[in-house]
Amino acid sequence: MTAPTDPEKLRAEIVRNYDQLSPRLQQVAKYVLENPNDMALQTLAVIAERSNVQPSTIVRFAKTFGYDGASQMQELFRDEMLTQPPSPSYAERIRQFNRRAGAAGALAPHDVMQEFADSNILALEHLKNSVRKADLDRAIELIRAANAVYIIGLRRSFPVASYLAYALRHVDKRAYLLDGVAGMLAEQSSMLTSKDLLIAISFHPYAPETAEIATVSKEQKARIIAITDSRLSPIAGAADLCFEIKDAEVRQFRSLTASLCLAQTLVISYAFEMEGRARSQR
């Protein structure tokens, strides 16, 4: 394999080859995708400790993707950092937050609120810094061009899906929530055509029904936007556009603040786009 020449190409190759990697190399793959700043700044020993593998495994991972060794792969991430504002990675900021928060124990309600608020602030800052303008522009164009938007998000993802369906209808976009009432998820999704858009939302542990609908929709040549927490998510591979969202997690309880912020951004941006088009045609 020819070694990818920039981090984004490497990430794409990791996702494409992930299923063929050994379990140990898959551990490294997840760490590389989720901790780019660590890859740029930390020593091989620290990265190995944090990803729970031997340093030799990281070297083997780098060689699998065509590099001479781990240092050559890490150089890509160092170069990427030079083009971005310096800030700790999301993973490092969460580690810092957890150290400040201390061990789990009985907390007063105000302390719980403070922890959730602080953690959500980190998640929103990560959202602001990680979502690319080009991806948002493309998402708005996909929504605009679609004959109808179908939205699926089950279990923990359901609040985001229901908000999108509700809000899109209020800006005059045909939107349908695939909620699987009475076990009719397959019937609800059968109306999807190549002129439609599916917005699929799923976070770990991923709902298999959402992945199935995404796969079927891809076969029907519908366009797909995925909102998920990893490039290795089962819905990411089928998507035309994938938003990787890191929501806050406090003492094993996860928030949806960043995901809902993205959902609001998509709806309101679509409304502004349509208003601008209407004004230009007057």
Automatic annotation (TrEMBL):
InterPro entries linked to this entry: Homeodomain-like_sf, HTH_RpiR, RpiR-like, RpiR-like_SIS, SIS_dom, SIS_dom_sf, WH-like_DNA-bd_sf
- Where the record annotates domain HTH rpiR-type, the positions are 8-84
Q: Which GO terms describe its molecular function?
A: carbohydrate derivative binding; DNA binding; DNA-binding transcription factor activity
Q: Quick one: a GO biological-process term for this protein?
A: carbohydrate derivative metabolic process
- Matching CDD domains, A to Z? SIS_RpiR
Query: One short Pfam family name for this protein?
Result: SIS
Q: Which UniProt keywords apply?
A: DNA-binding, Transcription, Transcription regulation
**Where does the source fall among the domains of life?**
Bacteria
The protein's matches in Gene3D superfamilies, at most eight in alphabetical order, are given as: Glucose-6-phosphate isomerase like protein, domain 1, Winged helix-like DNA-binding domain superfamily/Winged helix DNA-binding domain
- UniProt domain SIS: residue ranges: 139-282
PROSITE patterns attached here?
HTH_RPIR, SIS
Protein name, entry field? DNA-binding MurR/RpiR family transcriptional regulator
Q: Which organism is it from?
A: Povalibacter uvarum
